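Customer escalation, tier 2.

The customer says the design service returned an amino acid string that "doesn't look like it belongs to this structure." They asked us to rerun it and document both sides in this ticket. The original structure tokens are below, unchanged.
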């Protein structure tokens, strides 16, 4: 299966922006949501879902739905093992260093675990307790487990019903469905994990973005798929929305809180709830990327290092978290702690580590060059999934 180097480069760019946001340096604030009211997380989730739809729908057509399901489940298991390793690293090494050094960036991050260590350990492995920074992979696992059933249904019956249900859950999430569901679960089971310790991402809202990407990817893999195209009024409107969001984000009066102290209106662009204005901004950027992206890709130089990171997105993502957690445990969370040259050295060292991990894992997987077509004989689904997996 031929690689899409443009998608790899975009995923690599999202990893770079995510890392710069998470590292406590002077760049974390200006490069948080750099393109408007959209962060690297939205781009990463959408691109990963797109690749999942593209790759696994091809498996289903070529090898059958059961093969596609097994490939999804194998990938979900790999992601779970990565998350479990990161969690154990956080709860042992990082917790020990942070507590000994009295780094509030770590003790605040692990406050519930430090108060309830055994419950934190068990519920963490069960994907219920999700400390900050380690809350995106559990959401991915949840989506990967749902996706084979949703994709199989949509390939037989169409995507209309799937997207209506998904959009309905997104609307419910904006109205507090997650809090209601948590309260119902606690009343039924006595779950001891506080709501705020179950991850910042509202999965009932973010599933809409995932299934939009899955739908787009699956539609692009169909034998009769036509290139996406938008009429010029839609493109013009998208450009206006994107420029407005960009100006508002960087030149507005309130920084990353668009409406200042107005909590209710800030929810319209809330990242964790995936607010409606955020979705609008993301859709506008998506239209621009589809309309102008191919032309830009043909003119701009290829940054191979971004492709390297994008092709090994799961190892690179885990490496970035390891690096960020070490920095928080050793240096703390103050973005002004280091001088400017220290920030530069820190960022360079972290990216060198991420690239080294990405290159090592690619060599271990023996991935073919991105412009090389595989042999006509289909590869086993597990090997193909290792090369083309969405995360």
């Amino acid at each position: 299966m031929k690689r899409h180097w443009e998608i790899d480069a975009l995923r690599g760019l999202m990893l770079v922006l995510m890392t710069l946001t998470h590292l406590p340096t002077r760049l974390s604030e200006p490069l948080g949501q750099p393109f408007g009211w959209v962060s690297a997380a939205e781009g990463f989730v959408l691109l990963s879902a797109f690749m999942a739809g593209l790759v696994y729908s091809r498996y289903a057509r070529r090898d059958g739905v059961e093969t596609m399901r097994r490939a999804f489940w194998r990938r979900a298991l790999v992601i779970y093992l990565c998350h479990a390793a990161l969690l154990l690293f956080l709860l042992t090494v990082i917790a020990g260093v942070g507590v000994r050094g009295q780094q509030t960036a770590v003790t605040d991050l692990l406050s519930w675990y430090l108060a309830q260590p055994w419950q934190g350990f068990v519920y963490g492995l069960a994907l219920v307790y999700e400390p900050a920074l380690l809350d995106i992979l559990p959401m991915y696992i949840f989506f990967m487990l749902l996706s084979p059933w949703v994709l199989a249904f949509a390939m037989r019956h169409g995507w209309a019903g799937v997207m209506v249900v998904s959009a309905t859950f997104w609307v419910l999430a904006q109205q507090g469905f997650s809090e209601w569901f948590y309260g119902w679960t606690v009343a039924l089971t006595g779950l001891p994990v506080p709501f705020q310790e179950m991850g910042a991402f509202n999965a009932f809202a973010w599933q809409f973005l995932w299934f939009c990407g899955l739908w787009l990817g699956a539609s692009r893999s169909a034998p009769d798929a036509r290139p996406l195209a938008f009429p010029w009024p839609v493109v013009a409107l998208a450009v206006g929305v994107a420029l407005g969001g960009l100006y508002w984000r960087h030149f507005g009066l309130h920084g990353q809180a668009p409406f200042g102290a107005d909590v209710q209106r800030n929810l319209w662009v809330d990242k964790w709830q995936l607010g409606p204005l955020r979705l609008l901004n993301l859709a506008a950027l998506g239209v621009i990327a589809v309309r102008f992206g191919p032309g830009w890709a043909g003119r701009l130089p290829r940054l191979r290092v971004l492709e390297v990171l994008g092709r090994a997105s799961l190892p690179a993502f885990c490496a970035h978290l390891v690096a960020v957690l070490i920095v928080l445990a050793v240096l703390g969370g103050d973005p002004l702690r280091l001088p400017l040259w220290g920030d530069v050295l820190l960022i360079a060292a972290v990216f060198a580590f991420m690239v080294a991990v990405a290159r090592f894992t690619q060599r271990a997987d023996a991935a073919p060059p991105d412009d090389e077509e595989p042999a006509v004989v289909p590869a086993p689904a597990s090997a193909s999934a290792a090369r083309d997996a969405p995360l």
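Tier 2 assessment: The sequence is consistent with the input. Confidence is low (pLDDT under 50) at residues 367-387. The first helix runs from residue 5 to 22. Sent an explanation to the customer and offered a walkthrough call.
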